[in-house]
Amino acid sequence: MRTMKKNILFVSILCLSLSSYAQKLTSYVIQYNQSFNGNTPANQNGVLVYANANETYVSSEKDIKGQLLPPYERVLVERSSGNTLLKIAKLKDGSLILTRDSLALSKQKFNPTNETKTILGYPCKKVETSINSNKIEIWYTDKLGVKGAPSELGQDLGLVLEVIRNGNTRTFATKVEKVKTIPEQLKLKGSEKRYDELSYKDLIWKNRFVQLPIFQKERIRFSDDTKSDSILRFANGTVIVKKVKIPKIKASDNVFVQLVEQSKGDAYDRTGSVFIIPANKAQSFLDGMKNGMSTLPKYENGNGKSYQGVVRTATFEPIVELMRFFTPFGVKQFNYLQLKDKVWQDSVLYRQDVSELAGMLSEQEVYVGAFIGNYDKNGHEVSVELTIHPGFEAGSEGNLKKTMSLFTTTNVMEMGGQEYGSMFDKDKGLTLSFRLDQDAKNVQLRYITTGHGGWGNGDEFVPKENRIFLNDTLLFKYTPWRNDCGSYRLSNPASGNFATGLSSSDLSRSNWCPGTVTPPIYIDLGDLKAGDYKLQVQIPQGAPEGTSFSSWNVSGTLLFD
């Protein structure tokens, strides 16, 4: 009986002790602001750190007020379980994800200094470290009996009151005060899904922008055996097309097109294009794909050939190239062709900013196509996506650029009978008319050009001046040329090697290299009044050599306010 009474007394004393400890557990909230080069922006979302001996939460003022839009993140350090670092994020769909690391803080290394100073009345010590070549200075105090920092860095030093990055970016405490409790909305809810750190970071990253997958590991090859599904296939499978619904794009947003390519059998460098098919006229390029290229408007320069669907007419618009790219010599499929000290790339990534074309994409259903000119039964495999990224200028609206498709001689339907762009063998070159229904300001011609064909004397390997005329007046002249092709050698395992010690993929070319994107140039036309205009492109195209001939892939789209 005495033993039972002693046990009851012990438990009572223990409970009182724990209750007393909980009451004595002091919590603080620390507010932080940030400045750059001595300037502190107004209305910034200040960092808030809640800390006591058991735990530290890193949040923000807008988070506490419920004003943050996902995705956003909190950091939690569990002091009572060995300084375990937890990161918790809320995604756009409302779900919570977390990652946990019990070793992260112990891996942080700092160099102590002898410098001290007082911040908000607290004596502070200084340590330094370097992260990704950035010099970081951290000031902390150990006089409050709690640990915390405005990020995960320095969480085990003490209470960090100032962080200086590269001498110009400063995060500094503005207030330290006691609080009764840590806000309940910061606590874990038990519904979080746990991920490893890499997957966690990837989920947050992809939640920050809009991804529009268009093609996923689709084959572009020359074959009669082309399956029918939501993807349309033309020209014996060398062109794939899909209808895509595009969300609203703001003027401040950034829009990118991305393509990943691997050879599945074709060893050669080929012309490729990602394009959209305008459908604002009575007839579209898609009509020609379905009904035969001979049904499209024909352009003639007097050389006896007809060029189908390459220029704008009153009833037709040609395709608009989002991105012109060139496959390398057999990446992936031919990586077994070993050379000493050469480690071949597994694939080629092409990525280009196309924000200037957002006006023809925003809130539209458009047909997006991809083309690689090849006659190989196994061909190439591609994945294509559009990504839309919020602009850096928050709240910036403005108007998207207006667009007008003028010409495209890239014969994406080559294997469906579309003629090569060889109309430049006559002085007429490429000539068309277009009409502006109203005055246009800040007009630019978005111009892409690449020369092709021939061997040593063909236009692929000989610089040729491009001249552009507006209403018979020379507007612009330019000699497109790339002399950096050797930079992409590791994407070209099947490239031929010459007795000179050069590889074929090393050779300079008319504005392209095997394994690269050819970006557009932007030609200023100024302000144009409403009315009719004539535009002409002249290039001194080389003469045929035996069975080899030269041609030019040029495309032009007007951009204006």
From TrEMBL:
Peptide-N-glycosidase F N-terminal domain boundaries: 211-388
The keyword Signal belongs to this UniProt entry's keyword annotation: yes
Keywords: Disulfide bond, Signal
Pfam families with a match to the protein in the record: N-glycanase_C, N-glycanase_N, PNGase_F-II_N
Keyword Nuclease in record: no
Signal sequence region: 1-22
InterPro entries xref list: Cu2_ascorb_mOase-like_C, PHM/PNGase_F_dom_sf, PngaseF_C, PngaseF_N, PngaseF_N_sf
Protein name: Peptide-N-glycosidase F N-terminal domain-containing protein
